[in-house]
Amino acid sequence: MHERQLFRDKLCNLMEDLSEKSPVFTGLILLTGIDAPGIAQGLFHSLSDFAVQIDDVEQIVISGRLVLTVLITLNPAHQSAIEVDLAQYAQASETDIATIFSLQSLVKVEKSRVGVHVVSKKMHPKILSTLATGIVSVNGNIESITRTQSEPTGFLFVVTGTTQTLLTSTISSLEFEYDLETRVYEL
Fold this sequence. Notes:
The protein is an alpha+beta fold.
């Protein structure tokens, strides 16, 4: 047991030293199912015996359905064992888990991010289409969209690749068919 822990620690240290531009072996895990307390905890527990590094996590719950994605860096020799443990956890938790393993360079999190908060009594797809078109027109990339409130409905767009000033100017010049409140700010 002691030798296994030493090996795991050494592997973790090696993984930390990898250049961010060097390709590394990664696993993208997608878990879906009915939301319940302990689902994320169980997934992380399933991974905890392996010498992996968590590089990214996103979780959303919509109408009681959970979508959880986790990006890990790992030793390719552990792929099969991780897949077995994840399959066991999927069965025990009554969730679905899909994985994709590949060699890739990790992408840094953009330091400059802008929030675009929109609120409307009627959040029609035309509103979101017009807003997304405006964001793209200034080379903005929508990294995430999250609901912030109900009645009226509000969404927060997290945008990279552009500036608050440029987005504020662009969004204020857009024409929307429905009443809409917008706020643009640095995150």
